[in-house]
Amino acid sequence: MKSPMRIAQIVGKMNGGGVESVVMNYYRHINKSRFQFDFIVDSDSTMVPKDEIEQLGGRVIEIPPYQKAVDYHKTLVSVLKENNYKIVHSHINTLSVFSLFAALRAGVPVRIAHNHSTAGKGETVKNLMKYTLRPFSKVFATHYCACSEYAGRWLFGSGTMNSGRVKVIRNAIDLKRFLYNSQVRAEVREELGLTNEMVVGHVGRFMHQKNHKFLVEVFAELLKQEPKAVLLLIGEGELQESMVKYVNELGIADNVKFLGQRADVHRLYQTMDLFLFPSHYEGLGMVCIEAQASGLPCLVSDAVPDEAKVMENMEFLSLNDTAEVWSDELIKLVHNTKRENTFKQMQEAKFEITTAAEDMQDYYEDLVK
Predict the structure, then answer these.
(1) Are residues 342 and 358 in the same domain?
(2) Domain extent at residue 147
């Protein structure tokens, strides 16, 4: 029996972010007799689902973090040569220039640069690196992918995007896990000690990109009209401690629940009444897709790509608008939305993982022919 082709998935730091979730979603649904994934991760990763990967037949290979450039390069070249990969699929955005240079030196014939992100205000050092590396995004890659047309244009340029050379791979999900279920809603509300309160939710790492400070300010405005409302913040990150402090300073700590990193996010969406997502920038915004699949109204910043909108109850607002404007729009959305089954619309928008995984498999097979 022919062994499955092993593909090196370079995911950088696995810290519970959206990119890792996307790759894992595809991995769970690919035909393991055709393809297997080896996850090449930075050794300072904090949330590697190693047990699940190995149970599915994959491997986790740790290498030095990219900040240790020389060790990173030498080790990665060695790993790629030793395993004789035909395909390297790099998910580390502008940093893929480094991983794909190693892949070139290792003699890997198919080298995919996959962009999941863009850039936004307020991250001077990070943006400097992104814009410095962006012109080199195509130098060592043989093929280009992106999570959205917007992300593809941002990294690879409009000319490359218009030529059809960028493959858009949707941040697809297992829709059936996310569909609205009133029974699950009641169960989770009971677990969290909630009754009929309006519940606003957010899923994302505590980092500048996700704009938690403004999010909390919007919620503080909401409390003036809905004093029993509750905010669920799901995720971890370097700014979490400062957000806990800020919530206390605003005097709203009793209404805010920091739930940390959760494996049952699909259940938590059920208990929410609205998903709030005022990001400074996004390549797509995978959690917006999940929230819409759950039938939730979503209020997001206009820095989120238009492609993220599938359902009518997703609204965009400018970050130049005040927290009060956001709060008023939030209340309107909650009161004008009735939760419904979204499977058909999400499937037609190509966010259903089974079909998307088959498409990815066909893509890989075409690349190695």
Answers:
(1) no
(2) 5-172+352-368
